[in-house]
Amino acid sequence: MPIEMEASIRQAIVDHNLLRVVSRWREHVVEPYLLYRGEAGFALLAYEIERPSHPSAPPGWVEMRLSCIQVVRPLPEHFEPNRPGYEPGHRRYWGRIICQC
């Protein structure tokens, strides 16, 4: 994972800034909640609020492997980290969390 990408994600989590993320398959606008080391490498748990490449897609939780992310751009808009379903204490994250809201 490029250090600049990790630093941008960490800062967005700490500051509660939205992120624009471009993956191999599509573009996302997300509220980043948790950066962790998953079974397949580093991953981001985020709440997707917009998918410009597929505008009819409903919002919801997404997990993105950082190896699939090409571009991360912090946005000036802030979010309140209070989405239902956010469970950083879930056992799948035990000992794996790098940064969280």
Description:
The chain has 1 helix and 6 strands; from the N terminus they run αββββββ. It starts with a helix and ends with a strand. It has 101 residues and is mainly beta. It has one domain (3-100). The longest helix is centred in the first third of the chain and has 13 residues, at 3-15.
Helix/strand/pairing class, anyone?
mainly beta
Overall average pLDDT: 90
Helix content: 10-25%
Order of helices and strands: HEEEEEE
Largest sheet: 6 strands, antiparallel
Total helical elements:
1
Strand content: over 45%
Total count of domains: 1
Give the N-to-C terminal Cα separation. 20 Å
Number of strands: 6
User: In one word, what is the shape?
Assistant: globular
Oligomer: single chain
The gyration radius over C-alpha positions equals: 12 Å
Poorly predicted residue ranges: none
